[in-house]
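Please, structure for the following, as tokens.
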Amino acid sequence: MDDKTAVPGREKLAAAREDAVGLREKAVDVREGTVTTRERKIRAAEAQGASDDQISMLRQANAQLVIATIEAHTLAEQVQTAQADLDHLAHHDVLTDLPNRILLNDRLTQAIALAHRQGKQLAVMFMDLDRFKHINDSLGHAVGDRLLQSVAQRLVGGVRHSDTVSRQGGDEFVLLLPDIEHAEDVALSAQKMLTALALPHLIDQHDLQIGVSIGISIYPDDGHDAETLIKHADIAMYHAKESGRNNYKFFEQDMNARAVQRQSIEAGLRRALERQEFVLHYQPKINLLSGTIVGTEALVRWQHPQRGLLEPAQFVPIAEDSGLILPLGRWVLREACLQARAWQDAGLPPITVAVNTSALEFRAGDFLQYLRATLDESRLEPHYLELELTESVLMRDAASADSVLHALAALGVKLAVDDFGTGYSSLSYLRQFPINTLKIDQSFVNQITSNPDDATIVSAVISMAKALRLCVIAEGVETAEQAAFLLAQHCDEGQGYFFGRPVEAEALAILLETGVSPALPH
């Protein structure tokens, strides 16, 4: 049953409740009339000289009727209060006391009708908190609930009395802005929301910072009914997330096509593992001093049945948002370990294989158990496996990460910080965690021969890594000049198109036979 058909049903239910209360009130009137009649009978009995026992019995019966009448009044009031409470609960979110989906839909439908009659515009904002799940999972649902309440208070504090802030469920909120003059006014409201939520939320002695991605749809341009406007605002919100999160986007018609494509990819991902449509490509890591291949990074590709070979950027973000990154990441880990062992069994020089590990995998309760089982199954010695984790994954819950990382180190697995320099600002984790390798992000390497600031940053990272006795590898090396600069700065290893593009396992096996990068002199 849709919301439009649900409204009359609720009205009938409310009418029925009112009828019930009316009947109870009539019953009370009858009882009151009975009490009055009894009182007259008592007086008549006294006048006629009835016995004391008879009069006493009549008075007791009358007293009981008075009590019953009072109780009936109280009960009727309690019923009315309970009905009002039930009606409130049916239309409001229990956690935040904000209007829920039902009430929002009612108000939006009414606002659309009014805007249509008056020839005016209205706006719908669909808001989704950025990375709320990680806070909820790491600090617990109690902290997550209080954070949602804090967010709700700030949203309500930043809107007009005529606006409606609704919680849709989870970490999703919808804001209805009736009667707007210009789209610029909505943009200002969205920016106001971003600013309000950017300030830290103090929850149980945690200073929590959380952003929000906002999608905006406008009536009548982006839809003529509540369902369409909310859907289009939701689509725009996804584009805000894809554009870096913590910003806002207005709905555009071509977003529909991209949303359909996104849904298609998500549906396809669910089938792809069963159909074995994923493949791994391997990019060599080169010792800059000797020019030999010392390792490789496993990079997933999707052999899509209709669209051909897809790069990670085309499907990994969707896998992360949908939770499918967990089974996909585990498939990559298992496949990479089996392949590394297969190369060794074929008599090729043993090398380290690196695998990217997502936050969802790393935080899974059975992560260590699955990794150990995978190493046992593949017969790969742990020191030939390297896990690459970003700074944000490491620092999201440092206490929990610390125990997992030390367990991995004790097992013999190598640990690398991926995209170093682009994430968490504190460097304290470098001495806290058992890290083996720093990977300098390619955004710094790209400009080292043309931008003095980037060259200085890369040189400083290499010097710091050396002082901490860490291996340092530069990503995204594309020219001989970049390779020469890194070698002069005593960078240990390089990875990038200059040394070799990602290739299938059979092609990398040929490179391993020589053991030298094709880009360097043999």
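Confidence is low (pLDDT under 50) at residues 1-10, 30-35. The two ends are 72 Å apart (CA to CA).
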